[in-house]
Amino acid sequence: MEIKKTFDHDNWTQMWAGGWGLLSCSHFGNQYTKEFFFGEIPFLSQSIIIVREGKSVGWAQQDDKDRVGALLCAEIIKDQTFAVSVSRQLKKETDKVIQFMDKLDRQPMDFEAYQEFWNRIMMYYYPHIQIKYVVDYLEPNILKELLPVFEEARVYAEPVFKRTEEFLITTAQHVAQINNWQTRMVLSLRQDEMEHVLQNGKLPPREEVEKRYCHAVIVSDKDGQDLLVENEAETIEKRLIKTNTNGMLKGSIAYIGKAKGTVRIILDPLQAEHFQEGDILVTGMTRPEYLPILKKAAAFVTDAGGILSHAAIVARELRKPCIIGTQHATKVFKDGDFVEVDADKGIIRLLL
User: Fold this and answer.
1) CATH code, 291
2) Which of 2, 63, 94, 261 has the fewest C-beta atoms lying within 10 Å of its C-beta?
3) For residue 6, pLDDT beyond 70
4) What is the pTM of this model?
5) In this model, does residue 64 exceed pLDDT 70?
6) How many structural domains does the chain have?
């Protein structure tokens, strides 16, 4: 598979960042490019997901995001009850996913249960994606009216992210124990490999999987999925990430205000002992488990996310300066940098 020739930085945007392993990301890539359809066209023409030691970042072409946003806006302009319907659907699918996991009580899944699990995840993500992307394209007056409806649905659905990855880890632990593998290695399998294991009990060569955990890039489109490691993965990541910013970075404003403080890059909220009151949180995206850190932070900055992201919602609740969707804040700034967050203008400046 070749990366499309339009692979210049400005045509790509970071969709999300989080704690999903390669196995989940392999599923996501296939869903985005082959299973989620808006109109007659898949959600994304191409998806790129970078995975490093169990943390991942998803990228899409801006043209795809714009196309979907315009489609969904047209639906809402035609009939605003569409927004209410999608929000209800998201809550309904949230309940179904959680009930499915509760029913299995975190027991390992067989092949049939594994397929059902991912089918339910897909049904959940369809309204989730609709809500997540339409808000960036609505006219301000329509957005003001519908934002409370969308926000309520997103908050209701938020627990699914953490629960589903924890649930998948249980199955990976079971497979690892049977085969004398490490759990993190099972979570580094591709979708087709995991399905093969659950059907036939056969794992791919260990040395091949070992390379993926440290650094891998998954490239998906309608024709298939490629998994790149080592130098090839590094090449793709360098083409995506732009760090030459002269100490200034722009993003979208989630909540206005200004703050100065010390940058603390936190990618795992369980490893934030050094975070002090008044520090500036810089991360990929936040989840509910980040809340104690967000309460201590003077301001927060994220690589990915829109106005319905967890960080944006919490910023509005806590009335703290917040800039989202910077694409590269965790790469541009270093732990210990002293910065100014100007969320009135959507700019972060390096001061020291």
Assistant:
1) 3.50.30.10
2) 2
3) no
4) 0.92
5) yes
6) 2
Residues 230 and 254 in one domain: no
Rounded CA-CA distance 346/160 in Å is 30
Strand partners, 340: 260, 349
**Inside any domain, residue 1:** no
- Contact in structure between 318 and 341 (CB atoms under 8 Å): no
Contacts of 266 (CB under 8 A, 6+ apart): 272, 275, 281, 282, 283, 290, 293
Give pLDDT tens digits for 89-106: 999 999 999 999 999 887
The pLDDT of residue 219 is above 50 = yes
Residue 182 carries which DSSP code? -
Partners of 323 in the β-ladder: 253, 301
Q: For the chain, what percentages of helix, strand and coil (3-state, to nearest 5) are there?
A: 50, 20, 30
Cα 124-318-88 angle, rounded to 5 deg: 25
The band of 40, judged by pLDDT with boundaries at 50, 70 and 90, is confident
Q: Quick check: 71 and 130 in contact, CB under 8 A?
A: no
**Domain span at 208:** 9-239
99-131 confidence digits (pLDDT tens): 999 998 878 899 999 999 999 999 999 999 999
What is the Cα–Cα distance from 273 to 340, expressed in whole angstroms?
Answer: 23
Residue 328, SS3? Answer: coil
